Amino acid sequence: MKTGASMLEIERLTRRFGSKTAVDGVSLSIPAGQMVGVIGRSGAGKSTLLRMINRLTEPSEGRIIFDGQDVTQLKGRALRDWRMRSAMIFQQFNLVQRLDVLTNVLVGRLNQRPMLSSMFKMFTAEERAMALTALDRFDLAEAALQRADTLSGGQQQRVAIARALMQNPRLILADEPIASLDPRNSKIVMDALRDVNRDGLTVLVNLHDLTTARNYCDRIVALNAGRVVFDGPPAELTAARIREVYGVTEEEFAEEAALAVGATPHQLAVA
Amino acid sequence: MQEAYATSLPAVIRGEEAFQAARRQKRNAAFLGAAVVLVCLIIAAWISEAHPATLWAGLPRIFEYFTRILPDLRWAALFASAETEGSIAFWFYRLPEWALLILETANMAALATLLGSAVSLLLAFPAARNIAPSGLVYNLTRRFLEALRTIPEIVYALIFVWAFGVGALAGILAIALHSAGANGKLFAEAIENADMKPWDGVTSAGGSWFAACRFAILPQVLPNILSYLLLRFEVNIRSASVIGFVGAGGIGEELYKVISFNYYEEISAIILLIILTVVIVDLLSEKLRHAAIGRLEAAR
After folding, report:
1. CA-CA distances (angstroms) from residue A146 to A38, B216, B219, B222?
2. Which of chain A's residues have a Cβ under 8 Å away from the Cβ of B205?
3. Which residue, among B276, A99, B159, has the nearest Cα to A108 in the 3D structure?
4. What pLDDT score was predicted for residue A106?
5. Domains in chain A, ordered, with CATH?
6. What does the pLDDT average to over B271-278?
7. Are B196 and B223 members of one domain?
8. Which of A156, A216, A258, B39 has its CA 20 to 30 A from that of B62?
9. B17 is in which domain, residue-wise?
């Protein structure tokens, strides 16, 4: 387990949707370079938690401190700069289907482009080289000029990771990155996330699959009804602990969580 | 009363009764709705003095007008020169002038469509509920677009003729303003139907609102926008044909003249030319739309 000075501090973070509390007073302290898996049943608030860190969803209460800076107060330019540093990866990849792969990766540089040149899709040769390098890392350089919707799910998620890397992020927030993928692509994507983590990036990844979380993460945070119910190394998250925390067996938990994200449970374990 | 179902299971009986009740309720609602519409229709006709008797009395006069504007064509002379009465050339003896005017009309429509749609494209993004920066901006742009399209083209044309003088410029601006309002609403609705996942993707990468509009939304709605643009072009050809009535350029001025002077045969000649132009534009834009959308689908 890599440790360092605490980089991301989440303090009593809360989000309410109407009368429902999705995330309820979550406090976490995450050191630089850690790979953290967030698990929980459907509706536990995993997605909302990650989206609040990137500020795609506004917190109702609480603070997020990154390197001493209060992220929850950011606005305009400063907020967009923060979003660039905390790259997101989504379950549905969130690529622009009708644009080519290269442009999709270059979206990661939009924050650094002057407004007018970006309106005309003008990027520098240096940026294109950077994008192609990122694509090549995932064996996708050949597909650079293909439209994103011609790629398989696994390929699209790799494009999404390349886009995230283009942002030169300090933090990667992956929201169920493998829930829509087959086992082989799940492994490729999880390996890619582990690789970038080893390059020094902090990774927060929402997972519905316990085995994957245990295999890849330094630390596991379990959420239930918006609250942290477990926070520790994977070895401590035993089957007994799962039953204690969620009131169901590990098999039931796995089945339920997989159903919630629309995946088939028995296929999902990635070793 | 038919009891065919009475012998069946209780569930069947209950289900059939529920079905009958629901159907009765639906029928009653439909009858009531139809009655309300009918009453409204009668009241509206009464207030606007649209009496059936007037319609009945005027009907033959319409046919009379149509027979008057029909050309006096003779088989023997059909393809003779413009000097011979009864030939097509005699009917269309001013074809060169009219052709020029029709061309001007089509150009007015094309320019107005492009100008207006450029404005709508810019306004459609803040006017789309799903991506508008704030409720205020959304409401302001929506109301502005409404105002643009509610004012009839002919009113704009009167204002612009007064400001810029008689000519095509007034017509182009008038049609462009109306097109901006009409297409703005359609474009905004296309944007509201767009998939928002790419929007999250671009925003989460630190892209600005403008970048997200450009990269996440525009590629999705471009085929739709192209369709609406070509449709608007067809509509604008018709508008440009009549806007000349108030001196705003195009074939309309000529049409107005021949109608007021009762040059009956020329009325039918010009109307036929306009119909032909609309048919040609219809056919062309259909081809263009398929080609352009096909290319959009294939390339990127």
Report:
1. 34, 17, 15, 18
2. 83-84, 87-88, 107-108, 110-111, 163-164, 166-167
3. A99
4. 92
5. 6-95+171-267 (3.40.50.300)
6. 88
7. yes
8. B39
9. 10-50
B positions 190-229 inside 8 Å of A (CB): 195, 197-198, 200-208, 210-211, 214-216, 219-220, 222
Integer Cα distance of B162 and A204 in angstroms: 66
Residues A209/A181, Cβ–Cβ less than 8 Å: no
Mean pLDDT confidence for B76-91? 78
Check whether residue B78 and residue B153 sit in a common domain.
no
Please give the average per-residue pLDDT across A227-240, as a whole number: 87
CATH of the domain at B288: 1.10.3720.10
pLDDT at B293 (0 to 100): 74
Nearest CA in chain B to A108: B205
* Model confidence pLDDT, tens digit, residues B114-154: 999 999 999 999 999 999 999 999 999 999 999 999 998 89
Residue B214 with chain A: CB contacts under 8 Å:
118-119, 121
In-domain check, residue B3: no
Q: Which residues of B touch A119 (CB under 8 A)?
A: 210, 214
* A94-130 pLDDT per residue, tens: 999 989 999 999 999 988 888 888 888 888 889 999 9
**What is the chain B residue with the closest CA to A171?**
B205
Full-model pTM: 0.82
Judgement on whether residues B177 and B117 belong to the same structural domain of the protein = yes
- Establish if B110 belongs to a structural domain: yes
- If you measure CA to CA, which chain B residue comes closest to A76? B208
For A89, the closest chain B residue by CA position comes to: B201
Mutate to test the interface with B, among A48, A94, A180 (most CBs of B within 10 A): A94
Q: Which of A88, A96, A113 has the CB atom closest to B198's CB atom?
A: A96
Q: What is the mean pLDDT of residues B71-94?
A: 78
Q: What is the token pair recorded at B145?
A: 């677009």
Complex prediction ipTM: 0.88
CB burial readout A132-152, b (16+ within 10 A) else e? bebbebbebbebbebbbeebe
Same domain, yes or no, for B153 and B174? yes
Report the pLDDT value the prediction gives residue A270, as an integer from 0 to 100: 54
Same domain, B186 and B133: yes
B57 confidence band (pLDDT: 50, 70, 90) = confident
Question: Per the structure, how many domains does chain B have?
Answer: 3
Give all strands of the β-sheet with A219-224 in edge-to-edge order: A86-89, A171-175, A202-206, A35-40, A219-224, A227-232
CA distances for B24 relative to B4, B31, B99, angstroms: 19, 11, 61
Clarify whether residues B151 and B21 are in a common domain. no
Q: Let me know whether B85 and B101 are in one domain.
A: no
Residue whose tokens read 């294939």 = B298
